[in-house]
Design a protein that fits this description.
With about 110 residues, the protein is an all-beta fold. The chain is built from no helices and twelve strands.
């Protein structure tokens, strides 16, 4: 999917070139392993390729999925979540685990934080 920016709205363009609006979200990340991080009211969660929210926005930062897991930051601590939203590594460290890995680099909210 490709990001599509239209004044005061956000949407996606699928592989067939169809525009799909996402009015609830203020930012959308790239799709990795079928899920993309989305921002809503300053929190990050994930949607699938059908635009269905699979992990509710609740994180301060969220990485791309890699090997079925994504790094997430909650209450200032880092952990990892699987594709159905289970925190398989509960947030417990102030350092982002495996910082620097190519596909799973940490992404923060669109405000540049």
């Amino acid at each position: 999917m490709t990001k599509l920016l239209v004044p005061r709205s956000l949407g996606l363009v699928d592989k067939a070139g169809r525009e799909r609006p996402l009015p609830r979200y203020t930012s959308v990340g790239i799709t990795c392993e079928g899920l993309a991080a989305v921002e809503y009211e300053g929190r990050l969660g994930y949607i699938n390729e059908e635009d269905v929210e699979v992990i509710q926005p609740q994180y301060e930062a969220a990485g791309h999925f890699f090997g079925g897991l994504a790094r997430v930051k909650k209450a200032g601590l880092w952990g990892a979540v699987n594709k159905v939203g289970i925190e398989v590594i509960p947030p417990a460290t102030t350092r982002c685990p495996n910082a620097g890995r190519a596909c799973s680099g940490c992404t923060k909210a669109a405000n540049g934080a």
